[in-house]
């Protein structure tokens, strides 16, 4: 998740908020995915994959492959992906949050983007909670500063703060090459000053903590540590919108352009929606409730590496919170592979 502050009225000339018809809300218990059964992981071994999605161990050489020049994309409107390209999707990973499964997720404590909060582990202060079949990731106002044990990439400790937050990752747990990642989530009361919830992907060889494998030495956003934002709500633009993007890497550590490939979409964030990204040949398709809203042309070629998922809620500025907490509620997270 990259830091970007944007307002619809001032970003010229490419920033446009796109709209599509609203989708009726439904409660978590009515999610179609729940009919798949309570599965944490479904390993699928199918021959003849049109768009193979493999695990990290099956793709050790993937980070050596770089294809295609980055190109800007275009909004697609409420289009459905071409079903002729595949007969079906097979689920390779599914977490429906009946519990917090440590085989799928781990906490991440890090200080990035000059964020005002401190990430804490183990759901302290209610920052991470699983209840009633959903995950809640929160920013919580403690009312008084506490010490923070998060550090920046350069080893600087976060100063004491009264705000704490949750951030979880599938790094070293569930990592996949290409395919389709999706999550069903909602963010009530969006647009409050400082809000920055996100659902996104990062290359599995990223060098940020926790580092558990010897190949985790690649700096953001180079190949092996590339970033795809599937859902990112920045309060600067007001309520009920979110951004999707692939970070355009210039090939250096820290050299990422987050605006050139960004698409801003309007929707009711308080309602349940499915936010997804999938690889379609050389392109990345971003979907809202199954409809393609943006095609990032050629960008699929720039993410050959295994990716892991991140769910976090950040407080991006020093504005005072007007409520005790903010919440992003997640019904499920899923990865799939396309098969013939």
CATH uppermost class: Mainly Beta
- For the record, the count of structural domains works out to 1
Major beta sheet summary:
11 strands, mixed
Shape: globular
Strand content: 35-45%
Count of extended strands: 22
Describe, in plain words, how this protein is organized in 3D.
This protein is mainly β. Helices cover 0% and strands 37% of the residues. It is built from no helices and 22 strands. Strand 13 (227-232) and strand 14 form a beta hairpin. Residues 2-16 and 21-72 have low confidence and may be disordered.
What is the structure about, briefly put?
By secondary structure, this protein is mainly beta.
Q: Which helices and strands, and how do they pair?
A:
Layout lengths: L16 E2 L55 E6 L8 E8 L10 E2 L10 E2 L8 E4 L2 E13 L14 E5 L1 E3 L5 E2 L3 E7 L8 E9 L23 E6 L8 E6 L1 E2 L6 E2 L5 E4 L6 E8 L2 E6 L2 E6 L10 E9 L9 E15 L1
Parallel strand pairs: 1-17, 5-8
Antiparallel strand pairs: 2-20, 3-22, 4-9, 6-7, 7-8, 7-22, 9-21, 10-21, 11-18, 11-22, 12-13, 12-21, 13-14, 14-17, 15-16, 18-19, 19-20
Tags for this model:
Jelly Rolls, eleven-stranded mixed sheet, 37% strand, disordered N terminus, 22 strands, nine-stranded mixed sheet, 0% helix, globular, single chain, mainly beta, 340 residues
């Amino acid at each position: 998740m990259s830091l970007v502050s944007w307002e619809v009225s001032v970003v010229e000339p490419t920033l446009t908020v796109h709209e599509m018809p609203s989708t009726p809300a439904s409660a978590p218990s009515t999610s179609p995915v729940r009919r798949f059964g309570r599965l944490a992981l479904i390993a699928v071994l199918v021959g003849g994959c049109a768009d193979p999605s493999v695990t990290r161990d099956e793709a050790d050489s993937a980070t050596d492959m770089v294809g295609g020049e980055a190109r800007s994309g275009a909004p697609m409107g409420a289009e459905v992906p071409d079903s002729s390209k595949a007969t079906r999707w097979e689920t390779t990973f599914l977490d429906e949050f009946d519990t917090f499964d440590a085989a799928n997720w781990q906490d991440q404590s890090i200080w990035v983007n000059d964020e005002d909060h401190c990430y804490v582990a183990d759901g302290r202060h209610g920052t991470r909670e699983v209840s009633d079949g959903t995950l809640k990731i929160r920013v919580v106002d403690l009312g008084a500063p506490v010490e923070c044990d998060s550090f920046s990439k350069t080893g600087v400790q976060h100063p004491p703060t009264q705000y704490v937050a949750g951030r979880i990752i599938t790094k070293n747990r569930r990592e996949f090459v290409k395919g389709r990642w999706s999550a069903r989530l909602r963010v009530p009361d969006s647009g409050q000053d400082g809000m920055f919830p996100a659902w996104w992907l990062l290359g599995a060889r990223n060098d940020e903590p926790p580092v558990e494998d010897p190949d985790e030495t690649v700096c953001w956003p180079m190949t092996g540590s590339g970033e795809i934002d599937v859902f990112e709500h920045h309060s600067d633009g007001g309520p009920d919108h979110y951004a999707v993007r692939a970070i355009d890497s210039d090939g250096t550590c820290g050299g990422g352009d987050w605006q050139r490939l960004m698409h801003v979409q309007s929707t009711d964030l308080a309602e349940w929606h499915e936010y997804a990204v999938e690889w379609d040949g050389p392109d990345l398709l971003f979907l809202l409730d199954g409809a393609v809203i943006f095609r990032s042309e050629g960008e699929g070629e720039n993410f050959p590496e295994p990716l892991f998922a991140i769910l976090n809620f950040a407080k991006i500025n020093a504005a005072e919170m007007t409520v005790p907490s903010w919440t992003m509620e997640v019904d499920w997270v899923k990865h799939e592979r396309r098969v013939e």
